[in-house]
Amino acid sequence: MLDGADTLRERRRSETTRTLVRLTRRLTAERGLAGFTVEEVCSEAAISRRTFFNYFASKDDAVLGIPLDRSDAAAVARFLAGGDAGTHRELSPTLVADLALLHEERWKALDLTGDAVSELRAAIEAEPRLLQRLLEQARERELFDVRLIEQREQLAEGDLRADLAAHLVGALARAAMSDFLSRDTESFSVLFEQRIIAARELLLGQVAPAAALQRG
User: Fold this and answer.
1) How many structural domains comprise the chain?
2) How far is CA 101 from the centre of its chain?
3) Residue where a domain stops, chosen among 28, 52, 69
4) Range 142-150 average pLDDT
5) Of 8, 67, 144, 145, which cross-links 166 as Cys (Cβ 3.0–4.6 Å)?
6) Radius of gyration over alpha carbons of the chain, in Å?
7) 192 and 170, same structural domain?
8) Which residue range is the domain that position 216 belongs to?
9) Rounded Cα–Cα distance for residues 145 and 105 (Å)
10) Looking at the structure, do residues 38 and 87 belong to the same domain, yes or no?
11) What is the pTM of this model?
12) Which of the two residues, 116 and 184, has the higher pLDDT score?
């Protein structure tokens, strides 16, 4: 019974999240962020103002689908489980690929497919600063990823390799994100993987197959 209740709560939370995201994107595209209030959103969604702020920190974050609570716990757990217990000298051979997959899973959690992509692009066109907020949030996650890499690879705090890995893969993800949201083009995953492969070729002098990013 408890599992059923938890599943129902999760479904309702997911539905409310999607409703708030769609509403704020539509209103932003039509009026701009200053053209509507949180109270208007809550009225249309039939929720209280307090409930809105249990989901999102601001209108901006609602438009971008950035939840108040982290939603990548499962993806983070998979990333941490991929590390090799080791010597502090050698990194896991799959570190970069696993970190890239973590970024892709986070992106998929935003549910940017079909009409949702068009709605977000329309909102960003009306309010270009939203793209900057999305990029800032991605940079904030890079700092979190530095700690994840240190934990997974059993590195001392401040190990430069963790910092470089997080910021390199993060920079490639931001570039792909910006490209994807600024024009009607290929999927984020395709754009991101193209950059990962190009970076490997540039840094290692080796051409990595696309399948390298698709570990089962």
Assistant:
1) 2
2) 11
3) 69
4) 94
5) 145
6) 19
7) yes
8) 70-216
9) 14
10) no
11) 0.76
12) 116
The CATH number of whichever domain residue 57 belongs to comes to 1.10.357.10
What's the token pair of residue 99? 């970190």
Encoding tokens for residue 35? Answer: 């053209």
Residues 104 and 189 in one domain: yes
Among 46, 69, 92, identify where a domain stops.
69
The tokens of 191 are what?
Answer: 């754009």
Any alpha helices (H) in 32-128, and if so which ranges?
38-45, 49-55, 59-64, 73-81, 95-109, 115-126
- CA 21 to chain CA centroid, Å, is 15
- One DSSP character per residue, 68-95 reads SS---HHHHHHHHHTPPP--SSS--TTH
Angle in degrees, CA 64, 68, 71, rounded to 5:
85
Residue 135 and residue 47 share a domain: no
Distances, alpha carbon 157 to alpha carbons 37, 47, 143, 146, 166, in Å? 43, 44, 12, 9, 14
| Best CA proximity match to 169, nearest among 138, 190, 127, 147 | 138
Residue 72 in contact with residue 66, Cβ under 8 Å? no
- Looking at the fold, whether 132 and 202 belong to one and the same domain comes out as yes
